[in-house]
Amino acid sequence: MPAHADPTTSYAATRTEHARPTSVQMSWLRRGLDQPGGKLPLFDEYGQKIHERTIRSCITQGWAETWFDNPIKPDWLVCKLTDAGRRFAE
């Protein structure tokens, strides 16, 4: 481990600090700004399902978090903005 690295800092926190959302991720994150609780949409503005890779990447980066399980559609990731995601989206 480099001498300057803090062993208490998580890998995800380090990545979030330096990473920037792609244009697709940013578009998705911004759509949560006007929603109650920062809920992120399951579908884009054209009615197409948001790609799972986009959602999972945003969760990994700390910009989104899962909110609750959907009992009707358990494969859907219902997410909301985190404080870090809100900062980027604003």
Structure report:
This protein has 90 residues and is of the alpha+beta class. The protein has one domain (13-89). Helix content is 37%, strand content 10%. It contains four helices and two strands; from the N terminus they run αααββα. The chain has helices at residues 11-18, 23-30, 52-61, 83-89; strands spanning 64-68, 78-81. A two-stranded antiparallel ribbon has the order 1-2. The relative contact order is 0.20.
How do the helices and strands line up, and which of them pair or pack?
Blueprint: H1 11-18, H2 23-30, H3 52-61, E1 64-68, E2 78-81, H4 83-89
Antiparallel strand pairs: 1-2
Supply the helix-strand structural class. alpha+beta
Question: Based on DSSP secondary structure assignment, what is the total number of beta strands?
Answer: 2
Largest sheet: 2 strands, antiparallel
Q: Describe the global form.
A: globular
Q: Main attributes?
A:
two-stranded antiparallel sheet; 90 residues; 2 strands; alpha+beta; 4 helices
